[in-house]
Amino acid sequence: MEGLVLLNALTTRLLFVLHSLVGVWRVTVVTKEPRYWLLALLNLLLFLETALTLKFKRGRGYKWFSPAIFLYLISIVPSLWLLETHHETQNCISQSEGMSQNTSSKQDFNQTLISSEQTHGRGDLIEMARVFVNNLSTTCEKSWTLGLHQTFLLMLIIGRWLLPIGGVITRDQLSELLLMFVGTAADILEFTSETLGEKNVRNNFTLVCAILFTWTWSMLQFPLDLAVQQVACPASVTARGFRSLFFCQYGADLWNIGISVFIQDGPFLVLRLILMTYFKVINQMLVFFAVKNFLVVVLHLYRFVVLAMDVRASLRSQPEVPRGGYSPPAEPAVSGVSPEAWESGSKEGVAIPLRASPVTSDDSFPTP
């Protein structure tokens, strides 16, 4: 079992590194700048995290946070920024030229495959690999960038699935987290492809940077495991008041609401409204997803109010407990003296003992 944990930890991080290197390679191909290979040095942080995790955690994850996914974001996001902001990514070759190139590339690939089957030589396999790489290189840069976006989101989901479970998260909570990631990834991919695909948006560099910043901000939810982890509330939390009980009882729901309102649906809604109102970018899909983001935000706020009212009602239904968790002691009763005698004795100046003591045969009350 321990060997499987180590294998999953190493395999996942290796996939992260390979995918980030593909992104760096595409940046150098598009920009014709070999200096961008320096972006590959960002993977050194992931190597350091891998070594520390294997040494101190035996390959298992951490509580509430995944450093591996966070460092993977750091290594791949700069490459996607450079690809999206480069001018060659905005335009593709014509359809006829692309079809002719694809046809010729397929013919070359098929001829190489046939020749390799006939000779079975190692050189032919290398030649086939070279032709295959050339076919990938002739693919439209816009398609390459979209493919990197798609595989990036798939790597986040598959990587989070393969990473060993750590902390207090259970497999049931992990499955719930992965289902949330699938829906989140689909919305994020639609956001980038829908907004960056507009020509009016592409011609505005500031607007492209704003969209990419919002997209990067939404990625910060993937390293977090807070939205599914339930924490058992101790009995003493009820005595602390509404706020303590609210955050303890519905902590996971509050994190889910906060992530949706402040990290994903809220920023997406604001940016889509700016596109439609200020920049006059209006299409059917943009309006639909803007309405969808608005409904999600409103429903989350409604759920927040419902949860708050539920906690308030539960506090009102419980008996009131004084602060400190104990009730004040009752007044000590004086043995053998009624309240009426106490009151009359105090008026007449009769001395009455303040404490009750055991009565024996030799004890007597003092005389005035």
From TrEMBL:
Keyword Isomerase: no
Transmembrane segments: 36-52, 64-83, 254-274, 286-309
Region feature Disordered, mapped onto this chain: 318-368
Residue ranges with Polar residues bias: 358-368
Keyword annotations: Membrane, Transmembrane, Transmembrane helix
Record Pfam families: Tmem26 (PF09772)
UniProt protein name: Transmembrane protein 26
Organism of provenance: Rhinolophus ferrumequinum
Annotated gene: TMEM26
